[in-house]
């Protein structure tokens, strides 16, 4: 028998119903049911559709995770769940399911922050988190730079996007280019055959007073508009849109800003480890550029494998297991689903 805690984690903050099972830092199962196809024709996640899909997927996904891990629910030491931030109706399904399991099995409940889970998941791949580390979380809903001392205690926000999230920019630009939703992976693929220097798109908040006032913040809405104007001008002139070049040049602008600011934040805070998480961390160019720039400043980069970067239940279980190992007090059984849970609150 291992003395590492066996934890089941549930994630329903957006369109993925994730149920993960970990023992300490060891991943045993990561079952994900996605409703992404049901949202594709709307070009974005429809909250009501997501909630209903979570309801339908919850029990089968729990069963699948237990089968894969070869454990029974009764063996689990604790239940962890994303209590926020996210879509409230979607979160409610996960929180209610986790409470039911915790009560039925008489096991402690840990309501955890989605963003802190994106940080904690890396332990499943690369072992204990360096303390402190600089985390850059880039997803469809968030783009933040966080200073993490102890992920179970809290994180210090250094900066965030002031308008669109990085993933949102990928999704919107993909739509402009006629690529399917979610757009990130399609832009990533198109960009491979395009030129990243074909078009000089703007880099938000990287110079002059903007940089002074927003050193660790991001802005992607100007970039998105610049891409839209460029594409419209080509179309108005009756010329074909070079999709691969637009994708590569846009992707370069996003990755340039993200990596520049992340490395600057690490150096400014004397931190030697940069962790990148969230769906956009799956981007191939972001990974390469981050490695290159960080190495020049003696900073190491950790990026979980793509399946652990996008939303999943294993990340919630990973943070829950860390809470148990570090002896944190479990959540009350009446915790709410908090759609705007601040990043500073790691445990509800
Ligand atoms: O973390 P995540 O699965 O869900 C949220 O919490 O938002 O992130 C989804 C986002 C989407 O915007 C998607 O387009 C983006 O991550 N994404 C990517 C890539 N794979 C997923 N963006 C750029 N390149 C990729 N390879
Ligand atoms: Zn996420």
Automatic annotation (TrEMBL):
<feature type="domain" description="Gcp-like">
    <location>
        <begin position="27"/>
        <end position="317"/>
    </location>
</feature>
<keyword id="KW-0479">Metal-binding</keyword>
<feature type="binding site">
    <location>
        <begin position="137"/>
        <end position="141"/>
    </location>
    <ligand>
        <name>substrate</name>
    </ligand>
</feature>
<keyword id="KW-0012">Acyltransferase</keyword>
<feature type="binding site">
    <location>
        <position position="171"/>
    </location>
    <ligand>
        <name>substrate</name>
    </ligand>
</feature>
<feature type="binding site">
    <location>
        <position position="311"/>
    </location>
    <ligand>
        <name>Fe cation</name>
    </ligand>
</feature>
<dbReference type="InterPro" id="IPR017861">
    <property type="entry name" value="KAE1/TsaD"/>
</dbReference>
<keyword id="KW-0808">Transferase</keyword>
<dbReference type="Pfam" id="PF00814">
    <property type="entry name" value="TsaD"/>
</dbReference>
<dbReference type="GO" id="GO:0005737">
    <property type="term" value="C:cytoplasm"/>
</dbReference>
<dbReference type="InterPro" id="IPR022450">
    <property type="entry name" value="TsaD"/>
</dbReference>
<dbReference type="InterPro" id="IPR000905">
    <property type="entry name" value="Gcp-like_dom"/>
</dbReference>
<feature type="binding site">
    <location>
        <position position="184"/>
    </location>
    <ligand>
        <name>substrate</name>
    </ligand>
</feature>
<dbReference type="GO" id="GO:0061711">
    <property type="term" value="F:tRNA N(6)-L-threonylcarbamoyladenine synthase activity"/>
</dbReference>
<dbReference type="GO" id="GO:0002949">
    <property type="term" value="P:tRNA threonylcarbamoyladenosine modification"/>
</dbReference>
<feature type="binding site">
    <location>
        <position position="114"/>
    </location>
    <ligand>
        <name>Fe cation</name>
    </ligand>
</feature>
<protein>
    <recommendedName>
        <fullName>tRNA N6-adenosine threonylcarbamoyltransferase</fullName>
        <ecNumber>2.3.1.234</ecNumber>
    </recommendedName>
</protein>
<feature type="binding site">
    <location>
        <position position="283"/>
    </location>
    <ligand>
        <name>substrate</name>
    </ligand>
</feature>
<dbReference type="InterPro" id="IPR043129">
    <property type="entry name" value="ATPase_NBD"/>
</dbReference>
<dbReference type="GO" id="GO:0005506">
    <property type="term" value="F:iron ion binding"/>
</dbReference>
<feature type="binding site">
    <location>
        <position position="118"/>
    </location>
    <ligand>
        <name>Fe cation</name>
    </ligand>
</feature>
<keyword id="KW-0819">tRNA processing</keyword>
<feature type="binding site">
    <location>
        <position position="188"/>
    </location>
    <ligand>
        <name>substrate</name>
    </ligand>
</feature>
<comment type="function">
    <text>Required for the formation of a threonylcarbamoyl group on adenosine at position 37 (t(6)A37) in tRNAs that read codons beginning with adenine. Is involved in the transfer of the threonylcarbamoyl moiety of threonylcarbamoyl-AMP (TC-AMP) to the N6 group of A37, together with TsaE and TsaB. TsaD likely plays a direct catalytic role in this reaction.</text>
</comment>
<keyword id="KW-0408">Iron</keyword>
<dbReference type="InterPro" id="IPR017860">
    <property type="entry name" value="Peptidase_M22_CS"/>
</dbReference>
<comment type="similarity">
    <text>Belongs to the KAE1 / TsaD family.</text>
</comment>
<keyword id="KW-0963">Cytoplasm</keyword>
């Amino acid at each position: 028998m291992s003395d590492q805690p066996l934890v089941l984690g549930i994630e329903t903050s957006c369109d993925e119903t994730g149920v993960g099972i970990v023992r300490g830092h060891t991943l045993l199962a990561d079952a994900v049911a996605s409703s992404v196809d049901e949202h594709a024709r709307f070009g974005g996640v429809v909250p009501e559709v997501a909630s209903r899909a979570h309801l339908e997927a919850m029990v089968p996904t729990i069963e699948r995770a237990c089968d894969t891990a070869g454990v029974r629910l009764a063996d689990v030491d604790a239940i962890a769940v994303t209590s926020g931030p996210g879509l409230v109706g979607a979160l409610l399904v996960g929180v209610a399911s986790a409470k039911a399991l915790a009560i039925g099995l008489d096991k402690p409940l840990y309501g955890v922050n989605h963003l802190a889970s994106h940080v904690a998941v890396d332990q499943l791949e690369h072992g204990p988190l360096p303390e402190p580390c600089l985390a850059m979380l880039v997803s469809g809903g968030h783009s933040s730079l966080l200073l993490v001392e102890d992920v179970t205690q809290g994180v210090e926000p250094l900066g965030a996007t002031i308008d669109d999230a990085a993933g949102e920019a990928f999704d919107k630009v993909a739509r402009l280019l006629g690529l399917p939703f979610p757009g990130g992976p399609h832009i990533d693929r198109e960009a491979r055959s395009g030129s990243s220097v074909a078009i000089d798109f703007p880099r938000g908040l990287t110079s002059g007073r903007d940089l002074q006032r927003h050193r660790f913040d991001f802005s992607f809405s100007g970039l998105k508009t610049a891409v839209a104007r460029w594409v419209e001008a080509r179309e108005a002139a009756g010329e074909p849109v070079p999709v691969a070049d637009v994708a590569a040049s846009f992707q370069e602008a996003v990755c340039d800003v993200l990596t520049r600011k992340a490395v600057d934040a690490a150096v400014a805070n004397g931190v030697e480890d940069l962790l990148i998480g969230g769906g956009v961390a799956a981007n191939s160019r972001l990974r390469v550029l981050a490695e290159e720039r960080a190495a020049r400043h003696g900073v190491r980069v950790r990026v979980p494998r793509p399946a652990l970067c996008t939303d999943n239940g294993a990340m919630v279980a990973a943070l829950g297991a860390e809470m148990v190992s570090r002896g944190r007090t479990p959540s009350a059984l009446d915790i709410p689903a908090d759609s705007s849970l601040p990043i500073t609150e790691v445990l509800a």
